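fyi for ur records
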Amino acid sequence: IDIQDLNEAPTILATVRSVSEAQTRGNVGLPVTGTDVATNAVEGTQLSYQLLGNAAALKIFTIGVSTGQLSVIPAGAYLLNYEDVSSYTVNVKVTDNGQGGHLSDQAVLTINILNENDAPTPAVMSVSLSIEENAVNDDLIGTFSGTDEDASDVLTYAVGTGNCWYENAPLGTP
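which gave:
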C-alpha cells in the first residue's frame, strides 16, 4: 500500500493587530501568520500573503508577500489618524504552492489605530496687536484660537515679549 500525501489548504485565523497613529511609513513589524500542515517542501511549505477588500485600508497598509509582515505603505499619501478612523478591517488571503493546485484560506484582519497626543494647531503662527496707551486693565486687545484633534485636551496660551508675560491662561481668560 502506497499512501500519497495530498496538499492540504493552509489556514489563517482572524487576527487583531494594533498600530500607533504615529507609526512611520514603511515601518514593518506586525506579523500575520498562516500555517500549512504539509511536511514535504514540494507540497506547499511556502506561503504567500495578500490583503483584500477595504479600499481605504489598501491605500495605507501592505503585507509582505512571502513574510506576512504588515506595514504602512512607504510612499503612501495617507497617514494614520485615530481621530479620522480608529480601525480598519481587511481580509488576508494565505496561499500555498503545493502540488495539485494552489490552495488558500482567508481570514479577517482588524487593524486598531492607537491614539497618540496630537500637537495643537494655532489659527495663526504670529500676530501683531496694538493697544491704546490709555487702556485700562482687562481691555480686550485680541482673541487667539487653536484646534486640537484630541477632544480631551485643554488648550492653554502663553504670550510674552519685552516686559509682558502671561502664561497658561485657559481659553477665554483675559
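Confidence is low (pLDDT under 50) at residues 165-169. thats all i got for now
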